[in-house]
Structure formats: structure tokens, C-alpha cells
Write a structure and sequence with these properties.
With 593 residues, this protein is of the alpha/beta class. The protein has three domains: 239 residues, Glutamine Phosphoribosylpyrophosphate, subunit 1, domain 1, CATH 3.60.20; 195 residues, Glucose-6-phosphate isomerase like protein, domain 1 (Rossmann fold), CATH 3.40.50.10490; 138 residues, Glucose-6-phosphate isomerase like protein, domain 1 (Rossmann fold, 3-Layer(aba) Sandwich). 35% of the residues lie in helices and 24% in strands. An eight-stranded antiparallel β-sheet has the order 3-2-4-1-10-9-11-15. It has a seven-stranded antiparallel β-sheet with strand order 5-6-7-8-12-13-14, covered by helices on one side. Strands 19-18-20-21-22 form a five-stranded parallel β-sheet, with helices on both faces. Helix 8 packs antiparallel against helix 15. It is globular, with a radius of gyration of 25 Å. The chain starts with a strand and ends in a 17-residue tail after the last helix.
Length: 593
């Protein structure tokens, strides 16, 4: 969601922060702002604006700076207004703050400490700034900052500027991600590795409770008890700096086309010849499991549903899939011997973090599957596995979904005896996707011919139903066509009442044993006037099917079957003129509950 970038060093801070914010645009935001110390004017300047980053850039005057903080906001407290955009200043004007997260007790704090002090915004963040202004009078700033942090309940990643000390920045973290990068005497602070990778050579992912002081010498870190922490930095993976669209018009289309390469990289990372290369401690943990619980949200949850089939068929391991936001507050009865697998593209999903706290409290082992090995969930779970999808910029996930399924398949295969070459089958799936993508422009005509209504349905059985859920999500989130995914056999139990003349129904048919049943459902909706498009693999395809795919292993059909649905979503959004990479109201990484 919201993005933070800060810089203190020898180069132009304003330029570095604006570049970092541009790299965070993919996360989703509705306003942006920056504060920096203008050396010529010997003053801190604050600029903020609604809408896209270019609106903010147009406000900025010429002139350099050696210290700056910036923010892209996704509204939680208060409407989308210039006043509610970050940065926020304390009531006395001394302190300037940017903040990711939610302060749950901000109203109580305002009533207790800030009665009678006027507010300029409806945000919880302004309370933090004004608390500092109230408590720092006559005190050491670092001590006052710690005092304020002790009062806050909820989640935060904070950057702080002090007008009385323009050569120092302060930072703090609890539950929301924050990283510190270095390049010589330059220090870069960001909520996402993507934002600092172009400027930093090394970085540190901060732990919860960390408080950081940044000055011209570098940075120092103290933990929640005030003890100095010796930072151990990791080199920045420069792949995260390569975030241009290349020859493609949108990141989403680029990432759809990257899926074959991602599958091949996963195969290279996770196989020694035909043998899966899974860490022994992870294998041992899962081999002891009596039941596997998958926790995820959104697209990752849909990958988890496919994962359930993989674990139960390949490893004979009973598996349940839970929506993380539900599990976090309504956990089911859990049996001894349960193991938890958390799936998150970003590794920062707030609902999953809340769920992991419950899992750890109850003493169950946990494993995170993520695209970011330095993420909070990767660090806080007992074990982690990386999906190697590379940076995914478009809000609508595509290659991370296929990467998650591929790694889930390898993990399940490693626990059982599949009786086939998974490496070969993954290679065939990658080739099948590549073959299909060669003629992706045909989807422009397919979409124009079929998606003429404000509503649509995807149907399928078994793994096709799992893909139908993801396909419906993809279409609705970027084209804004109201779309639902249904088990084909459930249509007659109520949903068929919604089928009328011209309603698009996209049927997925890849499973031999239920293909005839799905085609019966197709006949039912066609008889009621539905405009049907069938996506089928060659082994079960019929002459009139609109889209045909290469045949792959039955348990890997989601890898190829999802690609046409991604292209349908893309071209539907393209024809409707929506913001494909940054759809309205959505964020790439949901870091607040």
C-alpha cells in the first residue's frame, strides 16, 4: 500500500526521493508528498498533492537538498485530499512525519495529550507528529521519539525530520516493512526494496521495534529495549532495479510474457537433475505434518487452492486452505501435528502477519512461500522458500501466481512419489505458455466479440474451478467488469438465474474425467442465451472451442490455463481505457488489516 522513501547524503536528496517514489507507484496510491531541506532558503519545504506523482513533481521548484522524505498514500484515515496526504507536520511546525500503517489508538492519544490543539487533517499520522511536538519540548529528540513510539498501538513505518536539526533523520518500524540502504556516505530509507535498489549497494531489513538515527556519517540502529544493534547488510539484487517495461505497453503484459522464463528459473533453482532440491529442514518439517494449513489472500489464496490439490495428490497430505483475514480473527480448531504454509507475493501482507502471530502463539511450525526473501513473513516464519518470480510491478499479479503454483508443485512432489518427471512436465508447461503467447494479440478480437456486458462468469470443475476464481478476480480488478468464478456443477443451484441473453460465460475445460459434465453446464447456459467462450486443452478440446491450449500434466493445467484468462483481463481493460498497471482503489502490497 503506502510507500515511504527517505534520503540523506551527498547527492540531490529531492531527486533520489522522487525517483524512489516513482518506483513505488506500482503499489497503488491516491496522493503523494515530499519534504526536504532547501539549503538555499535554509528551510524545510513541504509539498503534497492528490493524484499521480506527476502532479506533485509539477509543484517542485529548482534547487538541491541533502535530506528529504517522501510518501505515496493509499487512504485509510480520511478522504483523498491534499490535506490528508503525507508528509504531516506537528502543530508547532517543528516535526515532519511520513507514516505507513495504522495507529489504532490515535483518537485516545489525541484526547489525552492534544486536547485543544487544532488539526489540519483527518489522519492518524498527524497525531504522531503533534505528539512529538508536545513531548519533545526541552527534551532530547531521540528520547521523545522513543516515548511517542511507546504510546503507539498498531503498525507503523516512520520517517521523521526535525526542523531544528536538518542534518538528521529518524526512522522506526513496527509490523510495517522498512529497509535501510547505503552507498558510501549516502543513506536511503524505503518501505520496499524496489525503491532503494537503484541508489543503494547494500541494505538492511529492519526488525520490529527498531529505531534508527541517520546523519552524515551513516546510520545507527537500536532495538526496542534501546540496545545498540550491529547491522549486517546484504548486497542489493540489481534485478530489482530493472523495472522498465521494455517493448511492452504495460508491466502486466510484460509480466505475462515473463512466465515461461520464470518457470525455467524455478526449475533451475529447485532441481538437481530429476531430484527436487528442497532444504532438509523444510522437508523434515513437512514430513512430520499430519495436516497442512495454507494461509493466503487474493491471488495467493487461489494458488493455495491449487496447492491443496497438489499436496493431497502428490504427497497424500491432508490440506486445508484458509483466507488469512478470516483465520486471523476466527481460527478453526487445530489438531496436533499441523503445519502452516503462508503464501504471500510481497511477504508483507498484514492479514498473514496477524495469522502468523496466532500460529506462533499456539506453537505450530510455519513456512513462508514468498517472492521477497528479506520480507517480514520470510524472517518471522520458521522457514521460507523463494518463488524467484523477480520484481512484479503490475498490481494485478500474474507471474507470481504461476511461480507460486510451480514451487508448490515441487514441494509436494518432493514429499511424495509422483512416478513421473516433474522437471520435464514443468518444461512442457513453460513451452505451452510460450507457444500460446506468440499470438496474444488475437485476444483483442476475442474480447471485443464476447465481453459486451457489465457482468461475466467463469466456470470450471476441479482445478479448472480454482483457475476460474483467479480468472474472475483478474478480470474484475483491472477491467471493472463484475465477474464471478463458479464451480460448473453449482450453476443449477441458483446462479443460473443470472444467465440471460448475451451474458458472457467463459468455460475452462482441461480435466478429462469431468469434461463431459462441464460441457453439460455449457449447454445449460447456452440454452438460456449466454455468450459462451470455451478454453480447453487439446486432449479434451472440441472443434468449436474458441481457445485451445497445449496438453500438459493434469496437475499442472492451471499453469497454462490461467494465461488466456490473464490476456482476456488485459485486453478487456485496454479496450475500456482503465489504468491497467494501477487499477483504482487497489494496492500491490496490503500492509494494513
Amino acid at each position: 500500500m503506502c510507500g515511504i522513501v527517505g534520503y540523506l547524503g551527498e547527492k540531490d536528496a529531492k531527486k533520489h526521493v522522487m525517483e524512489g517514489l516513482r518506483r513505488l507507484e506500482y503499489r497503488g496510491y491516491d496522493s503523494a508528498g515530499i519534504a526536504y531541506y532547501d539549503e538555499a532558503k535554509a528551510d524545510h519545504l513541504v509539498f503534497k498533492e492528490k493524484g499521480r506523482l506527476e502532479n506533485l513533481a509539477g509543484l517542485l521548484p529548482e534547487g538541491g537538498s541533502q535530506a528529504a522524505i517522501g510518501h505515496t498514500r493509499w487512504a485509510t484515515h480520511g478522504r483523498v485530499t491534499k490535506e490528508n496526504a503525507h508528509p504531516h507536520e506537528s502543530h508547532d511546525g517543528r516535526f515532519i512525519v511520513v507514516h505507513n500503517g495504522i495507529i489504532e489508538n490515535h483518537k485516545a492519544l489525541a484526547e489525552e495529550y492534544l486536547a485543544g490543539i487544532p488539526r489540519k487533517s483527518a489522519t492518524d499520522t498527524e497525531i504522531i507528529a503533534s505528539l512529538l511536538g508536545h513531548l519533545a519540548k526541552g527534551k532530547d529528540v531521540a528520547g521523545a521519539f522513543r516515548q511517542v513510539l511507546d504510546l503507539l498501538e498498531g503498525s507503523y513505518a516512520l520517517l521523521l525530520m526535525d526542523r531544528e536539526h536538518p542534518d538528521i533523520l529518524y526512522a522506526a518500524k513496527k509490523k510495517s516493512p522498512l529497509l535501510i540502504g547505503q552507498n558510501g556516505r549516502d543513506t536511503i530509507i524505503a518501505s520496499d526494496l524496489t525503491a532503494l535498489c537503484a541508489a543503494a549497494t547494500d541494505y538492511l531489513a529492519l526488525e520490529d521495534g527498531s529505531i534508527v538515527t541517520i546523519d552524515e556519517r551513516g546510520f545507527s540502529v537500536r532495538d526496542g529495549q534501546g540496545k545498540a544493534v550491529r547491522p549486517v547488510l546484504s548486497p542489493v539484487d540489481k534485478a530489482y532495479a530493472e523495472t522498465d517495461k521494455g517493448v511492452f505497453d504495460h508491466y502486466m503484459l510484460k509480466e505475462i510474457h515473463e512466465q515461461p522464463a520464470v518457470l525455467r528459473r524455478i526449475t533451475a533453482e529447485y532441481f538437481d537433475q530429476e531430484t527436487p532440491r528442497i532444504r532438509k529442514d523444510i522437508s523434515a518439517m513437512l514430513q512430520k505434518a499430519k495436516r497442512l494449513h495454507i494461509l493466503a489472500a487474493g491471488t495467493s489464496m487461489h494458488a493455495g487452492i491449487v496447492g491443496k490439490a497438489l499436496f493431497e495428490n502428490l504427497a497424500r497430505l491432508p490440506t486445508e486452505v484458509h483466507i488469512a483475514s478470516e483465520f486471523a480473527h476466527h481460527p478453526p480448531l487445530l489438531e496436533a501435528g499441523s503445519v502452516f504454509l503462508l503464501i504471500s507475493q510481497s511477504g508483507e501482507t498484514a492479514d498473514l502477519r496477524a495469522s502468523l502471530e496466532i500460529v506462533k502463539e499456539k506453537g505450530f511450525p510455519s513456512l513462508t512461500l514468498t517472492n521477497v526473501k528479506t520480507s517480514t513473513l520470510a524472517r518471522e516464519a520458521d522457514k521460507y522458500l523463494e518463488i524467484f518470480a523477480g520484481p512484479e510491478i503490475a498490481v494485478a499479479s500474474t507471474k507470481a501466481y504461476t511461480a507460486q503454483i510451480a514451487v508448490l508443485a515441487i514441494l509436494a512432489f518432493a514429499l511424495g512419489d509422483g512416478g513421473f518427471s516433474l522437471r520435464k512436465e514443468l518444461a512442457l508447461a513453460a513451452q505451452g505458455i510460450e507457444n500460446h503467447l506468440q499470438d496474444h494479440k488475437m485476444y483483442s478480437g476475442i474480447v471485443a466479440g464476447h465481453l459486451k456486458k457489465p457482468h461475466a462468469f467463469y466456470i470450471g470443475r476441479g482445478l479448472d474451478y480454482a483457475v476460474a476464481l483467479e480468472a474472475a478476480l483478474k478480470l474484475k480488478e483491472i477491467s471493472y467488469i463484475h465477474t464471478e468464478g463458479f464451480a460448473a456443477g453449482e450453476l443449477k443451484h441458483g446462479t443460473i438465474a443470472l444467465i440471460e441473453e448475451g451474458i458472457p460465460v467463459i468455460a475452462l475445460v482441461t480435466e478429462k474425467r469431468t469434461a463431459a459434465h462441464t460441457r453439460s453446464a455449457i449447454a445449460e447456459v447456452e440454452s438460456r442465451g449466454a455468450d459462451v467462450l470455451v478454453i480447453a486443452t487439446e486432449n479434451v478440446a472440441e472443434k468449436e472451442d474458441g481457445i485451445r491450449l497445449d496438453t500438459v500434466h493434469p496437475l499442472l493445467t492451471p499453469l497454462v490455463c490461467v494465461v488466456p484468462t490473464q490476456l482476456i483481463a488485459y485486453y478487456a481493460a485496454l479496450q475500456r481505457g482503465t489504468d491497467i498497471d494501477k487499477p483504482r482503489n487497489l494496492a500491490k502490497s496490503v500492509t494494513v488489516e
